[in-house]
Design goal:
single chain, alpha/beta, Rossmann fold, Helicase, Ruva Protein, domain 3, Arc Repressor Mutant, subunit A, 3 domains, 5-stranded parallel beta sheet, two-stranded antiparallel sheet, binds adenosine-5'-triphosphate, binds magnesium ion
Length: 372
Amino acid sequence: MNPFFIQQYGGPKFFCDREKEVARLIESVTNNRSLMLHSMRRLGKTGLIHHLQYYLKKKHKYTCVYLDILDTDSDESFVNQFINACILTLFDDQATILTKITNYFGKYKPKLSIDTLTGNPSIELDIKTNKEVELSLDATFKLLRSSKKPIHIAIDEFQQIGQYPSTKIDATIRKHLSQTKNVKMLFSGSQRHLLLSLFNNPKKPMFGSVEQMELYEIPYPKYSKFIHKMFHNGKKNIDERVIHNILKWTRSHTFYTQYVCNRLYALNKSSIKEIDLYRMQKQVLNEMQMTFLSYRNILSKNQYTVLKAIATESSVKTVRSKDFTSSYNLASSTAQQSLEYLVDKELVYEKLTEEGKEYFVYDLFLSRWLEK
Ligand SMILES: Nc1ncnc2c1ncn2[C@@H]1O[C@H](COP(=O)(O)OP(=O)(O)OP(=O)(O)O)[C@@H](O)[C@H]1O
Ligand SMILES: [Mg+2]
């Protein structure tokens, strides 16, 4: 089995480090503090949530609910998904599920159906008005309060609620969080400006209500040791030099590192050499070429020039400097406007550091392809 997971959490054996992060998260949960977790895309938030919930279940006897709300678009769809996740985690036999939904949500005409392929149950409630959204959430929290066990609920891609038309979700959750002692929540996401505006804007209901944590890259020595161990366990040899080059090429960014290691592991070889990595890098970029080429059509000439220039430089602190503008033949104001567009479209990431801002191409593979 390939030990490098790229689409889901593979369990603690295949999870690298995050010890300090998990300790901090467990400390906050067990001391009654809810939390907001954010980071760049693909750094490992979802994996970390599953890893945290693994320990909360195993060592702290929590009931753990996880939901990803990326495909919801309104308060009604949120409530349906939230209720489904809570009920289906709390109760596992159909008879109890039926009794609970009838007792707690009877007036929303609940329907319980079973997926014929997976055998998984799902609940559908008929919720239409703002009042029904609020009342059905009230009923869900009442149900959660009635549980004897401590409950941890993680809502992934939480920034999505910022896209709902006039949402009442954040206000209702905030009200219940302060009244529900046995429930702690974790809100996670990556679209920093959307997410932070939900929590750091004094006009928003969630303002100041939860602790905040940013996730960073896994430290080099930990990732390097992990990669070595995973290859070694699979009776494959990998040189320190190759590991060093992988982490340098991927900037230790979790998803890309996992991906490259997954592909290298999949080669039917007992020893991985630098030439294998080199070939792999070339192949991966070739496979993605069509997607990358399409950026040329959707961006203006200047935007594409700035994107390519940032990739070539690896990262830049400003695009207005004389060095940058004369190297790439751009006017300072055009370069700045293009940069703002690229940041807005999440093609370029704006990293806030103690010394100021730093910009790099968000998708690492795109960055490596452009610099070529
Ligand atoms: N510490 C880790 N060790 C090993 N694999 C990890 C680790 N963290 C994450 N992964 C794996 O890397 C992949 C990408 O991580 P994940 O999906 O958790 O990132 P994310 O920050 O939630 O991304 P997105 O912003 O797109 O939601 C997943 O397959 C995940 O299992
Ligand atoms: Mg995620």
